[in-house]
């Protein structure tokens, strides 16, 4: 269908030139007509520019109307629509159209009945703005407008949703609507601002609809600032609209509040971010912020990988949250950090190895986020379907075994009498299962059978220590397992150790680190605390215990409580800690606390068990006790260390020697980057179903479910945003803060309240 493209022009030479050039490049002007209307521009270069285009392209349908006097924007647009007898596109002169723009918009305009207008997506078009709604968006520096538009088209779900009003920056109008509704109201809106809303609302009242063309992207430079005169003009025209169309205005405001097209925005946000890098799905049981106190070693390791590899890969972390009992995905992308909700499934129990709903959602997740590699770090709360789906979709899997969950869901293989349980004899697991899980059925044979079958499909299995590898190979004998130790960064700046209070303190300070449970040596902490009373030895705890009696100070015992991981080395040095007790009664697979001790140049005491003993023996940076050593054995060793300063200094020197060549986080990132790239290149993904609209709709629908945050944080955030609204920050910044609050606290009693505060302080009070 032939269409007339109307561009009203007043000055803006460079923008106008670029706009016309893109229309000529991307539009079939042997079929359609480009109508250029010069509204008596004061820039004398404009008319010659328009004539130049007609001269250079004589075979194209380019027409010029030159107003003899300045008619104003709305009258100029009406002149164009009266000149035409066909469908029209009203196109601002500060826009840049993109490939196939007009055919796509036309198809949208005739995709449904009773359509009056169509508005494409843009960087700066209020309701049609993407990826940030109601905002002026910046195109990333490594994207051209054409490339951005191509990705928008390629990822589009082609929903063509209804919107309450068109936007005049690029407004397709069907001739039927013009004939039945009339032209723009140039009497009321002659100088512009609000005329397209007035026309749109008249169309709505007549039964017509307005669509958003979500597969087409048009760049719009837009107005960068408003003068006082323009602001007053906008406000006065808004009052006209409110008086004429109160219900339409109310519906538009409701549309802005609810943002029903957020799926489109989120889809584009992901598509742009996913474009230039490979995408890695991290699977983990728990994923708290790195700055939280006492987070686990597995979570710390994942944060370290992301921090040191985010320039190379997009990371998407799938985890279970015990705050709301739901599964979430946090994506770390070049321009965003996005958290979406995957779903909520039947409560996890020991025997729930598979879950059909989880299986379906993982398929959707992998396709929607274009996952190239899955790196599993922990499967607690997860289901083994992750392996099945990966195999079905030919997505390679790497599995880092941080503990012994795949051998037994107790994870630690701990036995209080023997330290390491007899895990090889599954027949003897019944009594432990009865005590640990309150079950009378020995499920370990089935558990290991299913894990073994799935582990055989993994492209690479990694453990952080050789002792861990040996334990796994005793259980799963024919697996190929690679040892890749974790990295750790040294202290950048050590605290001043010349504190006079330290010199006065003649005590020998020893410390326990972390969350001290029974398997982590709680009984030794309790016994030592009693043993050192009245001696020249102090016991410190940096962390917490399961015995609350020891979460407070006692004589010769100092309780420091939770700590942030990066603060620990300095805390140890500031408290003049001389020896660290790592008395785990079960085998560790690596031990971050050992790394933290070593970078603080503090020797350790441990049992001859697991990765701690392996690492201490290899570098000779501490003392190893036989398993089942008594309290007297431990106290005797500590006393010997205290009274043998020469041997102690030898251990410290060996630590310093070790630190010179210690693997850093950067080294570890480089090592895993090589592993990832080799795996991805060896097993490239060829069949992502990225056009499966129903799947992506389901993902984005669930993505609207936001983590429930506590009321104290909610109220504090409400007060902060209200302060911003009342301050002198720019309108856009204040609006974005309101939108962020409303999208985060979806069920909050403050959600509508903050919106009304915004209207009052930022709109209504301006007019009073």
UniProtKB/TrEMBL annotation:
Q: Where is the Glycosyltransferase 2-like domain?
A: 5-181
Q: Which SUPFAM superfamilies does the protein's record reference?
A: Nucleotide-diphospho-sugar transferases (SSF53448), UDP-Glycosyltransferase/glycogen phosphorylase (SSF53756)
* Xref: InterPro entries: Glyco_trans_1 (IPR001296), Glyco_trans_2-like (IPR001173), Glyco_trans_4-like_N (IPR028098), Nucleotide-diphossugar_trans (IPR029044)
Q: Which residues form the Glycosyltransferase subfamily 4-like N-terminal domain?
A: 295-489
UniProt keyword list: Glycosyltransferase, Transferase
Top-level taxonomic group? Bacteria
Protein EC: 2.4.-.-
Domain Glycosyl transferase family spans what residues? Answer: 496-653
One molecular function GO term is:
glycosyltransferase activity
Family to which this protein belongs: Belongs to the glycosyltransferase 2 family.
Q: What is this protein called?
A: Glycosyltransferase
Q: What is the lineage of its organism?
A: Bacteria, Pseudomonadati, Bacteroidota, Bacteroidia, Bacteroidales
